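Progress narrative, work stream C.
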Amino acid sequence: MENKDIHIGIVGAGRIGTAIYSLLVGRDSGYKISIADIDSHHKHWAINSSHFVEIETPFPSELSFYEFVEGKTLIINALPYTENINLYQACLEYNVPYFDLSEDDALDQWIDQRNYISLTRTGLPFTMPHCGLAPGLSTVVANHLTKDFSDLHHVKIRVGALSQDATNKLKYHASWSGDGLVNEYMGKCQVVRNGSYDEVDALSGYEILTIDGKDYEAFYTSGGIGTFAKTLANKNIAGVDVDYKTIRRVGHHQYVDFLFNDLKLPQDILTDMFKKYIPTTKKD
């Protein structure tokens, strides 16, 4: 297949989707590229209007996931995690390879439970979830490094999407999805303890770490480790500990722990708060 015959579909024209679009267009590779979103106001100055497709909600509608996916060579999912399974089902329908950047594991569980099985389908298209930074590159690097050790004791993955500065009391300016941020601050986090798979609460496991002479804090968040904890646990490495934590500026954890655990605010309120009232930045 020549490049001109490859049609890449990006679903989600927010910060991440627009960045992916810009990188692909900037390479001048000859691919045909389309990007879709439910909101035409998301059309960014960097997106050629001829490449943009508006998807209406609720689904199904005149133009749904299924209609956008049909005829594409591959789909890149840059939507909030809540739409992962819906979009994946459209990729199943047309046997289109699927990539997503999400930290959420609901799609993993959906596939593990073989919910895709039907009278006409027993297999899957090429599926690549968790291909962002965390999970994604960070776990690929960690997995590669573990192969250099004959005796493995600790695997500590620490990742943080930090702005160049943060002047508010939360010590945080948003640079990606508010939906994803709140989701990773909730639920259970996958770890390996003494060689066995386990789960711990998000926002627990607080620690201080020093990078280039500056102190930061880190704590468990869900999804960032992808399936890596289960992969290592299945290798039955005696005594190994494996975990993933998110890095933040010192002081951030105190406020989010208050909001999430002390006040126990509902997820929709927290998501609305982080999407509307936390300063945003492109300087991360």
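Work stream C, second folded protein:
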Amino acid sequence: MVALKTLEQKVNGFGTLIQGEITELFNSTTDEYAFEQMAGNIDKTRSYILPLIKQCQAKSVLDVGCGVGTMVNELFKEGLDAYGVDLITLGKYWQEQGFDPERYFFVDPYNLQLPFQDNTLDFAFTLGVIEHIGTSDGHADRLPNYHEIRATWLKEIYRVIKPGGYMLIGGPNRKFPVDTAHGPDSKASKLELKLTKLSGATIHKTWGENFLWAYSDIDNYLSGLPYEMRAQSVKGYVYFSRVPKPFRLLSKWYIDFMPKFMLKTGFNPWVMALIQKK
């Protein structure tokens, strides 16, 4: 196991650096969504995450925003030294599945403090999470300082990665005008809301502020730190279950055969940034 910081307390058997009473800030995970994640994340782990981890020759792995914890458990079963962190509301799902409490920890999304020493992990990934960091509701209502919160959050993940290790940051692309994974930004215009209602998918402008993010945001958040970033395809990770049915096959084809030079552009619906710490 990797070197941990001294934990402040344990809540329901799971450790945390949070001091005092831990309250539920918001509960953005329904039981229905949790069970969907338990099933779907096994396939995503085996078809996408695990091959990439092996490619990076990583042995110790952290899932930041691990949700119901399925990916961490699958990676552990594959022989990896795997850990996960998330909100206290997710603890009940870790308990129900009988996961090892030494591998799961509670964190504060507004002040992320990971329970690991500096430069201890080979690989960390956070998928579909950063767009909800710095929001008041865990969804799409941006706080005035959301960029600052996200920068602090991403730098904390960077801190625990070994030099030469990797971070994988993924989520829908702010520069692409369609988002099938979320509802609209809380400050969406009337036109955006109308187009969203008509299309069955969230339509948003590709300029200005939005709770979604883009490759350029990562460069801003990690400014001044030594790293190299490479855009990755999301083939094998995105299943298009929320894409309106008539467009699913076309969407899959579009993603599967996207040229490499387009991955880091506004033509790509997803950001999937593999960052190597220098």
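The radius of gyration is 18 Å. No further action is required on this item.
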